[in-house]
Amino acid sequence: MALIAPSLLSADFTRLTEVADMLNQSEADWFHLDVMDGLFVPNITFGMPVIAQLRKLSKKTFDVHLMIVQPERYIDEFRNAGADVLTVHYEASTHLHRTLSAIRKAGMKSGVAINPHTPVDLLQDVIAEVDVVCVMSVNPGFGGQKFIENTYRKIEKLCAIRSDAGLNFLIEVDGGVHAKNALKLLQTGVDVLVAGNFIFSSPEPLKTILELKRLI
């Protein structure tokens, strides 16, 4: 069964307590929290203080996605704020193997994200240090973008890499996930669906999350 990770990037930031309560009641598995610095991506969101406050409101897994330069500087800070999974971008990490190892050493699951233009083959030398591979299916920075169809091919390649290496990392897709492509994504091999606008623009987000959860 798929893991569902609503992205709070699309939530109403003036009602985060209510949003957290809704997600706690829902069939969602993870909170997906996008941290953007305005440098690696052309947007700024929130950082450790907001995550720490949200942590007080939920015991669900916090999937923290760092879209920032030099993410290795803040590993301990995000652990202390409450991250359970900490994902850094391949494109933002000069010493990626060291960073992924440090994330695990700090007691979190390690994640690596790749932008739409980044081939999955480039992860071969670090894949044994990874618990989650996040495939960006839109260009990172803003919610509500159109899904990039080439994502399916990248998922297939990742599945082959995982199988050939005998590994069990999770494959996560982030961006443009909705009712019309979610099932195909899961059938292709995705384990974690990140959905923001699709869930938070729904008149019945609890029902929408449940429908995603029950796809397979």
TrEMBL record:
Keywords: Carbohydrate metabolism, Cobalt, Isomerase, Manganese, Metal-binding, Zinc. Its EC number is 5.1.3.1. Pfam families: Ribul_P_3_epim (PF00834). A divalent metal cation binds at residues 32, 34, 65, 174. Binds 1 divalent metal cation per subunit. GO terms for molecular function: D-ribulose-phosphate 3-epimerase activity; metal ion binding. InterPro entries: Aldolase_TIM, Ribul_P_3_epim, Ribul_P_3_epim-like, RibuloseP-bd_barrel. Coiled coil: none annotated. This is Ribulose-phosphate 3-epimerase. It comes from Schleiferia thermophila. The gene is rpe.
